[in-house]
Amino acid sequence: MAALFFLAFAYFAVGQATVKRNGAQTAADAAALAAARQYRDEVKTDFLHALTSGDLTELGNLLNRLGPDDGAACSAAGSYAGDNDAEVQSCQQVNGPPGYTVGVRSTGTVGSSVIHGTQNMHAVASATAVVEPRCQAGDKDGNSVRFTCDDGDLTIDPTASGFLLDLADFYSVHLSK
């Protein structure tokens, strides 16, 4: 009977550890996505200026590369990690499609159990999110700029009443392996 109780408590400890690990992975995923999205959004002013001026070369450049890292992306990662009961241990910009790899550690421990040492163990996880262009700049027709995108053609007129620039139309932010 004692062996069965020990086994039940051991399974419970493994379950606790799994829950903490899954929570840490969720925090890492959210933090990496927040960093990549913040990095993407930092080109909004330049993108809007290029759209307004109709500078197709600059629009092409902005779609194929993003700007330098100013630290705001890792700050956004820290905020999202904190919202998910974790703290950022590392935040690094990656090459290829630009993005960020974020490593986190859970703020809480696995807790005490029949397995010695778990009361001081924290779950750790990491995730990488990238920013990839969804469109290519096409041509200009008056105030309108036409783009060829994954979902089909997109025509933008930045001088239109009520125009709002949504960079999600032009970039995909997603988790990567």
From TrEMBL:
Superkingdom classification of source: Bacteria
Start and end residues of each Putative Flp pilus-assembly TadG-like N-terminal domain: 2-38
InterPro entries linked to this entry: Tad_N (IPR028087)
Descriptive protein name: Putative Flp pilus-assembly TadG-like N-terminal domain-containing protein
Organism field: Actinacidiphila acidipaludis
